[in-house]
Amino acid sequence: MTHQGKKYTKAHEALGQKKVFSLQEGVAKLRELAYARFDESADVSVNLGIDAAKGDQAVRGSVLMPHGSGRIIKILVFAKGQYADQAEKAGADYVGAEDLIERIESGWLDFNYAIATPDLMGLVGKVARILGPRGLLPNKKTGTVTFDIASTIADLKKGRLFFKNDKAGIVHFSFGKLSQGNEKLADNLKAFLKVLATSKPAASKGKFIRKITVSSTMGPGIPVHAEEL
Fold first, then answer.
1. CA-CA distance, 81 to 86, in Å (whole number)?
2. C-alpha–C-alpha distance, residues 211 and 207, integer Å
3. Which of 109, 139, 158 finishes a domain?
4. Measured between alpha carbons, how far is residue 179 from residues 7, 23, 64, 163, 174 in Å?
5. With contact defined as beta carbons under 8 Å apart, do 209 and 197 qualify?
6. Does residue 229 form part of some domain?
7. Global confidence as pTM
8. What pLDDT score was predicted for residue 1?
9. Do the domain assignments include residue 1?
10. What's the mean pLDDT when you consider all of the chain?
11. 104 part of a folded domain
């Protein structure tokens, strides 16, 4: 049985008897109940009406946060020649090829996103087992395998974030930092939910978004009305 701390228990009790909150109320409440001494993330978990075991019902996509992610973004680019030059000029934090592969193999993972030019994906495959489980492997579907390095870096720096469902058919997503304030967080959450709502697979039948729960990194889950969408 998981033991919850006193601060968590107090925050959970402070939710009161109201079972489901509006989106605006939910965001305000998660900030109100935050108690950690660091700038917590604002997270949302969305239960989807899909069969996650079926490939044709997989949900994945990306959304550009109106107010950014609230995080310092570090981008690594696997590129050579003119594309490496473009990456450096565009503001990539790390640019290279074999040298970066060696660093990753030694356990270094100090970056949030990895981009690769298509011609280097064979090389990147050497660390696929390391990057894949962490969601860091460049992928054509997310636009991170591309020769259009500059615009991809700019997009990620502005706050483009990716999402996909897990094995239980739930999408977990961080839509900002509590320090961004109620309005910006609410805007970010609305932008994410709007994109998610349009990502319903054709093979999925019935209600798509079944349950929405927001929380801070350390705080309790706060149910939000899915009907608002």
1. 9
2. 10
3. 158
4. 20, 18, 19, 22, 14
5. yes
6. no
7. 0.80
8. 41
9. no
10. 91
11. yes
